Amino acid sequence: MTKMTRYQWLLIALLSANFGVVFFDRNAMSYLASFIQQDLGLTNTQIGDIAAALSFAWAIAGVLMGMLVDRFGRRKLMLVITTLVFSLASVLSGFASGFVALLGARLLMGVAEGGIIPITQTLIASDVPHERRGLAQGLAQNLGTNLLANFLGPLVIVWMGTRYGWRNAFFLSAIPGVITAALIAWLVREPAIEAVRARPEPGAVGRMLRDRNIVLCILISTLLVAFLLVFFTFTPLYLLNVRGFRPHQMSVIMSSFGIASMAVAFLVPGSSDHFGRKPVIIIASLIGLGMPLGMLFVAGMSRSATMACIALGASLSGVFPMVMATIPSEVAGPAGTTTAMSLTMGISEIVGGVFAPGIAGRLADAQGLEATLWILTGITLAIIVLAQLLRETAPAALARCKPAA
User: Fold this and answer.
1) DSSP calls for 343-362
2) Cβ atoms within 10 A of the Cβ of 159, count?
3) Arithmetic mean of pLDDT, 140-163
4) Four-residue CA torsion sign, 10, 11, 16, 17
5) 195 pLDDT exceeds 60?
6) Could you read off the pLDDT of 207-243 as tens digits, one per residue?
7) DSSP for 372-391, written as a single string
């Protein structure tokens, strides 16, 4: 298997850190929701609508940005600009005086962040050998996210919110984005594929949408987006308002998702390079089913048992880069990589990201926050069913299936 160069490892590390900062800012709203609800008088429905609005803006921007980047290039420049803008949006979130102002700030954040995944994964796909792409794209999308956003995020954000107030927490959350933007501008180079060579052929989008794997990746990504948004938006409130944990305890419990996901960032996408995308997705999803079911029927009031259940759910985060980046890029090829990933990300964010938090918020107001765990259960079961229909794309798995010459 081809070894990766020092620059390729640097690229993966830097882009992974930048994407971790993106989700640190995005998830800050979830961990500060209880503070914001008390100060601004927001309902669960309004909290869900804010999350949905960010996803809608993220999705539209992601699709448009991906197509523009495939056509005109300048990936590095666009990544630097979008990183700076989402940092500004975090600052504006801290100035919000009501529901409408906070909604507007999060919409701007979604617009800025939407293009970051397709640009990031295109940079990875352009510089990393095909046979190492599953591991590389998994690390880029998962490692920084889970370290910075899912592990340190709840601990740091809740601490800042408790000590300095939720507004100052938003202000401080903007600083890392400025730092990673400067590092990208300094250290990252444009990929070797020129914009004119990477331009997708006419009708490429239609052909992609007729491919079974692309359609399945869109559907599974939609469910994964719904899962993560419902989980991050309402599980902190469930732990505080239903289970009775204190804010510090909630932050520690939620951080277990990040700890487990850091291991998953290596194990799930990396093992798919060898064993195949399809079986790894199915197994990871079956493990993830233990999270909502365990919290409903096993965890009780035990903090350690709740942390164990949430750690099981982290296995689903490892599926994300495979269905949102790796499989679409293997189907579309170099010329359509960003467009394929933008379609997958954009549609999944519009459908899963926009509708799921709003529906979950309304059900939580009507039936109680336990309803969100049943939503997570149904989503995971649907992912397992759809994964059965995937066509294998991992080079190593396909090579084993070829008859001997």
Assistant:
1) HHHHHHIIIIIHHHHHHHHH
2) 15
3) 86
4) positive
5) no
6) 777 888 889 999 999 999 999 889 988 999 999 999 9
7) HHHHHHHHHHHHHHHHTTPP
- Here the tokens at position 182 are 């400067």
- C-alpha distances (whole Å) from 247 to each of 162, 230, 357, 364, 379 are 8, 19, 22, 20, 27
Total-model pTM: 0.73
Question: Which tokens hold the place of 211?
Answer: 């491919």
Q: What is the pLDDT of residue 91?
A: 93
d(CA 163, CA 56): 32
Per-residue tokens: 15: 């882009």
Q: What is the pLDDT of residue 71?
A: 67
Phi, psi values for residue 198, rounded to 5°: -90, 0
HSE-CB of 6 using CA atoms within 13 angstroms: 1
Is the Cβ–Cβ distance between 240 and 247 less than 8 Å?
yes
Helical H segments across 212-367, by residue range: 212-241, 247-275, 277-288, 290-297, 303-313, 320-321, 327-332, 337-348, 354-367
Query: What's at 79, amino acid-wise?
Result: L
342 and 218 Cβ atoms separated by less than 8 Å: no
The answer on pLDDT for 192 being more than 90 is no
User: What's domain 10-397's architecture?
Assistant: Up-down Bundle (1.20)
Sole residue written with tokens 């929701």: 33
d(CA 294, CA 104): 37
User: Who wins on pLDDT, 34 or 403?
Assistant: 34
